[in-house]
UniProtKB/TrEMBL annotation:
Pfam families: WS_DGAT_C, WS_DGAT_cat. The keyword Cytoplasm does not apply. GO terms for molecular function: diacylglycerol O-acyltransferase activity; long-chain-alcohol O-fatty-acyltransferase activity. Residues 55-278 form the O-acyltransferase WSD1-like N-terminal domain. Gene3D superfamilies: Chloramphenicol acetyltransferase-like domain. The chain crosses the membrane at residues 209-233. This is Diacylglycerol O-acyltransferase. It is a single-pass membrane protein. Residues 334-479 form the O-acyltransferase WSD1 C-terminal domain. Pathway: Glycerolipid metabolism; triacylglycerol biosynthesis; Lipid metabolism. It catalyses: a long chain fatty alcohol + a fatty acyl-CoA = a long-chain alcohol wax ester + CoA; an acyl-CoA + a 1,2-diacyl-sn-glycerol = a triacyl-sn-glycerol + CoA. One of its GO terms (biological process) is triglyceride biosynthetic process.
Amino acid sequence: MGKTPSLNLLKGTKNIEDTVRYVCLKDGEGDHEHEPLSSGARFFHEPGFNVYILTKIGAKSSFDINRTKAYLIQMIDKYPCFSQVVVKDKESGSMKWVPTHVNVDDHLIVPEIEQNMDSSDQFIEDYISNLTVSCIDNLKPLWDVHILNTRTSDAQGTCIFRAHHSLGDGLSFMSMLLSLSRKASDPEALPTLPVNMKAHHHTTTATNVISFCMVLWNTFVALMLFVFTTMFLKDTETPMKASTGVEDRRRRIVTRSVSLADIKLVKNAMNATVNDVIVGVIQAGFNRYLKRRYEEINSPVPENILLRAMISYNLRASVNVDASAKNTNENETWGYKVGYILLPFNVKNRSDPLDYVREAKSTMERRKASLEPFATRFFAKSLVNKLFGMKIAGKLNRNVYYNTTFCFSNMPGPKEEICVLGHEVTYLAPSLYGIPSGLMIHVISYVDKVTFVLSADEKTIPDPRRLCDDLQQSLHHIKCSVLAKPCVEN
């Protein structure tokens, strides 16, 4: 992105009220260049695709406002996209990033909170739910931070970071967050990730077990299914599939944490990956949830349900926490570098809970033996966009979300406790709203826990906490099957 006026953080400075309000820089003024939005960013300004990334952060203490402001100035200084606005040319329809001065106070919301309320947890959940039917004024940079200093069951203070998805993809924001974080045990050290966060590239060398021809065939089949889904191929109409207009409706964002050790126990016993186990748990959880929903309407569960997840897939060669990059131009993790995968979920009833993990492992292995995310990215971002334009490309892109059942994302988090905005963190919970899908499931690990973050359309999934219960119970049953002992409901 183009350069922006530096807002350097002065160590020890507490008065940072002297930042000015937004004044868009005119063309030709200074050295500032107005950079066009990428095709990935443009998608999120098309009708019906006004998507926001919302990350909930719990802290061990109340958030200090001055310290939070200081860290936000660091963020603006290092990542210029947070000091740019979107300007649309009325004649050509083109969109550009235009640098602007930033007043941090316009982006930091600290509401007064009644400390003796009946349920702080419910207050936080309702507050976030209200955010999901609101937008940020596009006359200013498209992000804000909400500080809710009230004690909940798992934190002393809560921070909600919200940003428009056109600023970057999910991995961009996670990399940004971690680059500004430090280990709680060592204020000078960056967080340690459980893996090198390498992108799941698919090699096709002679050493592969599956031949190059099979990889090409799997890729072709996956691409055809993706193309058909953009046009007419729809998932089975179940109680989990959203109706038209879901992107504009209120959402409920809930979380449920489980033991990372339990997932690793299953992983090691079945020679699988953590991701295989998580997909297996979701399949089993969906089975439990759908059976209950169909029982409520006195209807049998349909046979051969087609239920798929839309997954955005990282295509970067590697994703490392980079504290040395001075801005987004130097940071290889920033931007839109994702392809798409349509992952089928088998929700049939199984007598052996481990079958859900076995099927997930088999499905994931087939996906690894293809170039599906590269092919779908080329089709969606390059071919259709260049041949038919952004409007048609945007419509086909939305159709993929409409025609599948839910969205899914899985990301490893820090191994040790970290400090964000100068405060020790108890949990991280990223999510989305504004997407044309009734359910979004983010899964993120942090220290010794794995957290399922559900963003649910209230009309489609009116009881997201019961779905969380089903996911937790499913992991419990799978773990008991591994240990070969009777399973008792928690």
